[in-house]
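Posting this for the archive.
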Amino acid sequence: MEEADCHIYRDGKNFYCEYEDIRITVNASSYTIITAHRKKPVI
């Protein structure tokens, strides 16, 4: 199994995991995935 190099941080009541152009938002108290989105490109 390969491991992804992602940036994980907490901001307020959520954890965020960012990998390449993907951001996953997780509730810090219940560990429930709230959203998973591709980040919009910066123009």
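The mean pLDDT is 90. The beta strands are 7-11, 14-19, 22-27, 33-38.
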